[in-house]
Amino acid sequence: MAREKKIDMVILGLLSHEDLSGYDIKKRIDSMISFFWKGSFGNIYPALKDMEEAGLVNRISESDSGREKIIYKITDKGSESLKDWLKDEQAVNEIRYETLLKLFFGGALDKAVSLANIEQFENKVKGDLRLLKGYCENLKEHLDNDDHMYYYLTASFGVETYEAYLKWCMKAKKILKNGVV
Amino acid sequence: MAREKKIDMVILGLLSHEDLSGYDIKKRIDSMISFFWKGSFGNIYPALKDMEEAGLVNRISESDSGREKIIYKITDKGSESLKDWLKDEQAVNEIRYETLLKLFFGGALDKAVSLANIEQFENKVKGDLRLLKGYCENLKEHLDNDDHMYYYLTASFGVETYEAYLKWCMKAKKILKNGVV
DNA sequence: AAGCAGATATATCAAAATGATATATTAGGG
DNA sequence: CCCTAATATATCATTTTGATATATCTGCTT
Question: CA-CA distance, A79 to A9, in Å (whole number)?
Answer without folding.
Answer: 10
